């Protein structure tokens, strides 16, 4: 099972944002509200997003080394039905490894996904139809 070299059309950066939920204690939340009230940040989300980005910048070297070592695609990787049919015609199987967003088009059948996708490792978000996710459940790590 070899890792396929994907066309550039299947590798791009970007993507929509994902919503997360966090729990904070009242003191932390109060401090955030105080900084927002004092005009340091426009809202709670702005402060939290800034704090996360600062931590990611602090660890950027480690993240980059890990991306390289694990051969992860950084950003967005989208698979259309045509992309997977091309992989199938070449008698190849994909090992999808993404840090960011991996998506499979809505018109991809579970059968086509099973025939072409060996494994899925996504650090971030994985978008596919419920039927494709169910079909690939044993291959998603």
Automatic annotation (TrEMBL):
GO biological process per UniProt: regulation of DNA-templated transcription
CDD domains listed in its UniProt record: RHH_NikR_HicB-like
Listed InterPro entries: Arc_rbn_hlx_hlx, RHH_8, Ribbon_hlx_hlx
Name of the protein described by the UniProt record: CopG family transcriptional regulator
Species of origin: Trinickia soli
């Amino acid at each position: 099972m070899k890792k396929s070299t994907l066309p550039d059309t299947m590798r791009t950066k970007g993507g929509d944002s994902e919503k997360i939920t966090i729990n904070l204690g009242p003191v932390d939340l109060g401090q955030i509200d105080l900084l927002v009230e004092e005009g340091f940040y426009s809202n709670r989300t702005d402060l939290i997003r800034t704090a996360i980005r600062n931590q990611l910048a602090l660890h950027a070297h480690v993240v980059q080394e890990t991306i390289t070592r694990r051969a992860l695609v950084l950003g967005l990787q989208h698979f259309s039905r045509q992309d997977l049919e091309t992989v199938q015609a070449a008698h190849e199987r994909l090992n999808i490894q993404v840090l960011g967003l991996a998506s499979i088009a809505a018109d991809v059948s579970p059968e086509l996904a099973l025939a072409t996708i060996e494994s899925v490792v996504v650090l971030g978000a994985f978008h596919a139809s419920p039927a494709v996710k169910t079909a690939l459940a044993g291959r998603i790590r």
